Amino acid sequence: MTFSEKLKQAMQELHLNQRQVCGMTGKSKGSVSQYLSGKQIPSEDVQSAIAVALGLESDYFSKSDEQVVVLPTAELKNGVIPRLDVEKAAKLLQMNHNTVRKRVTYLNLLTSGKLNEHLYQTEQTALQRLELLTKQLSEEQGVTEELKEKAPMVCLLRIVVCRPVWLYRKRDYPEIRRLRGRLKLV
After folding, report:
1. 3-state SS of the chain?
2. What is the rounded CA–CA span in Å between residue 29 and residue 46?
3. Count of other CB atoms within 10 angstroms of residue 21
4. What residues contact 40, with CB distance under 8 A and at least 6 apart?
5. Residues 6+ apart with CB under 8 A from 80
6. CA angle 69, 70, 75 (to 5 degrees)
7. Domain 3-73 - what CATH class?
8. Ordered per-residue pLDDT tens for the chain, 186 residues
9. If 0-12 CB within 10 Å is exposed, 13-18 middle and 19+ buried, where does residue 119 land?
């Protein structure tokens, strides 16, 4: 039995997908894909490390028997995997702890059904902050109610200057630049 066949069998019996194998072993998605397709065979040291990371015997891929034997771990109590803190999980996944924290937050919100509510609240907060910043910047540019009544175009141009370019759609950038150029002439 080849390495790729044994890896596929182990994944099937352990109910793991390719992404989970990547996370457990620290190997890239491309490497695991190459291993599964049989295009690349890792060295014996790497094979041993993969077996241990999957909870198998270290010589699993070099042995000739066909059965998957999962090693018992001291951390497994009553069939429950212990909870990991974010820093330890990040270290095991070889990822930045902030990235892991964001992904955990996203998955928790998604599985609890609160993701849409959270996104709505985040959007509302961002819009409120934008409105406040635009108001403050408008005051700095001298945009007043009196100016709005007397010269609405000048007022509009000053507001365009206040708001950052990234707020506008990309196709509007040339028009914004043109308006900003006109404001400098006014």
Report:
1. CCHHHHHHHHHHHCCCCHHHHHHHHCCCHHHHHHHHHCCCCCCHHHHHHHHHHCCECCCCCCCCCCCCCECCCCCCECCECCCCCHHHHHHHHCCCHHHHHHHHHHHHHHHHCCHHHHHHHHHHHHHHHHHHHHHHHHHHHCCCHHHHHHCHHHHHHHHHHHCCHHHCCHHHHHHHHHHHHHHHHC
2. 15
3. 22
4. 31, 34
5. none
6. 160
7. mainly alpha
8. 788 888 888 888 888 888 888 888 888 999 999 999 989 888 888 888 888 888 888 888 887 765 555 555 555 556 666 677 888 888 877 888 898 888 888 888 888 888 899 889 999 998 898 888 778 877 777 778 888 788 887 777 777 666 655 555 555 556 666 666 665 543
9. exposed
**Nearest 10 degrees: Cα torsion 19, 56, 52, 4:** -50
Residue type present at position 152: P
Domain regions of the chain by residue span: 3-73, 127-185
Q: How many residues does the chain have?
A: 186
